[in-house]
Amino acid sequence: MRAAGALRRAPGGGGPLWGGTSVVGGVEPERGGFGSVVALDLRRLDGLLEVDAESQTATLQAGLRGPEAEELLAGRGFTLGHFPQSFEHASIGGFAATRSSGQASAGYGRFDGMVVRLRVATPSGELDLGRAPASAAGPDLRQLFLGSEGALGIITEVTVRVHPKPREVEAEAWSFPDFATGTKALRLLAQDGALPTVARLSDEAETMINLATARDVGGGEQSGGCLLITRYEGGRIAVRERTRELLAEAGGASLGAGPAEKWDHGRYHGPYLRDALLDVNALVETLETASTWSRLEETRNAVRDSLTESLQAQGTAPLVMCHISHVYPTGASLYFTVACGRGEDPVAQWHEAKRAAGDAISRSGATITHHHAVGLDHREWLTDEIGELGVAVLRAVKSTVDPSGVLNPGKLIP
Ligand SMILES: Cc1cc2nc3c(=O)[nH]c(=O)nc-3n(C[C@H](O)[C@H](O)[C@H](O)COP(=O)(O)OP(=O)(O)OC[C@H]3O[C@@H](n4cnc5c(N)ncnc54)[C@H](O)[C@@H]3O)c2cc1C
Fold first, then answer.
1. Cβ(117)–Cβ(141) under 8 Å?
2. Residue nearest to atom 30 of ligand 1 (CA)
3. Helices 240-249 and 179-192, interaxial angle, to 10°?
4. Which residues contact 279 (CB under 8 A, 6 or more apart)?
5. Residues 383-399: pLDDT tens digits?
6. What is the Cα 232 distance to its own chain's centre?
7. Top-level CATH class of 271-363?
8. Does 14 contact ligand 1 (Cβ within 6 A)?
9. What dotted CATH number matches 169-267?
10. Which residues are marked as active site?
């Protein structure tokens, strides 16, 4: 199990550490054969260096945390629109280094899609990549460093696309008879181009838990089915009527704003309960993946079944919940929340269940991670995903930019 804050307890690390919210062991202090571990504290890289209001870009230093970056941008009338659940603690450099995806990705996109330029310090020298909005000057090297998890260099600043801070925000919740119908509705929105800023569909089990607390805010008549949260900001309000039309045609029924507003108010709270739950013998963990629309159901079933079988065999039958919150014209992410009784050794208990789920994800042809990154925990499945030659390419790049292998040893590259 990984926890936000692990970084601050660590005696060091072979890479940058500031946010420390990695949930895949990205900031574990591995020595990698060296005598000691060095941690780079990026907190003083905390500037908004430039805003180009005409091009709608901003240059941010890597040590800014989510709220600090948003506050600085708000002072200039802009927002980045990147709100992962770890927003309060995670940093701009961390978002870039892990290819993070926020809860408003339907409207603003993933972090790697926002980056137009980045500067990276490596032991072999500095790279400054991305001088135009699009380019045919060979492969896009920015993509090598986005997702490089501190193993190829230290991202010191990024220039990102920003948006005028929205003056209007509207929210609406919908109910679908089942997850398959709701999933199809999201596919239609993504393929039609009528996506709201936030689109988050819970399966029946997650809906059951959500609605238990949503009754007092308008979800009262709803029982069973699946809950979809939608939220529209700024320019996305213009597509709202088309979105509503498609959702209704696809079998959705509006529940009004209440449950969507309730979700918004509590969106960063859930993870803080984890340790308290462990204290009362309940284990709650999460994992995620992504697949194409045509294989999404198969992947979901495979992951749910593998988690259920593994935890049942350990004597702790789980409740496995799932939601979709990042959608694309060609597919979507699946985010699983698993709740079960705490075994004698909860770390080993989850490790075994996660291994079963990782194998199921890999067999089903989905990605081992849609946004949590590789770190230590997903490394063993990376070869399956990119092949031996793909791993060799990563190793070759590392040996060029980091010939002594000092950067975040043991992470990302198998
Ligand atoms: C409760 C919780 C909720 C989460 N929700 C989401 C979510 O909604 N969406 C999402 O995408 N992720 C989520 N995460 C995962 C995590 O927050 C992201 O991976 C985030 O991008 C990490 O940022 P950080 O600044 O904390 O990075 P860290 O955890 O400090 O580092 C992560 C990795 O990036 C490297 N790194 C960090 N900074 C730099 C830099 N400047 N240059 C080079 N490498 C660097 C580190 O070496 C490490 O390998 C969540 C995590 C938690 C604990």
1. no
2. 20
3. 140
4. none
5. 999 999 999 999 999 99
6. 20
7. alpha beta
8. no
9. 3.30.70.3450
10. 335
